[in-house]
Specification:
Helices cover 42% and strands 25% of the residues. The strands form two sheets. Strands 1-2 form a two-stranded antiparallel sheet. The protein has a two-stranded antiparallel ribbon with strand order 3-4. Keywords: DNA-binding.
């Protein structure tokens, strides 16, 4: 299956066919991870566990910002 890179505002992107999205259980607003591999790119649905861990880390870093800054000295 071929897709074309298109200009979208100041960026560029591709349109993923609806049948592919349906098959993978994806919809508008879902987050994908992008990885370069063997001269190409790979798109994967974001792992919910990783997203939750990053959210928890951000909350912790905000809460303990002063202490982390002191520890970094």
């Amino acid at each position: 299956m071929n897709v074309t890179i298109r200009k979208i505002g100041n960026s560029e992107g591709i349109i993923i066919p609806k049948e592919v999205l349906t098959r993978l259980g994806l919809k508008a607003g879902d987050t994908l991870e992008i990885a370069e591999s063997n001269g190409g790119i790979e798109l994967r649905p974001e792992q919910a566990d990783l997203a939750e861990q990053l959210k928890a880390a951000r909350i912790g870093m905000d809460k303990y910002r002063v202490a982390l800054r002191e520890l970094a000295k």
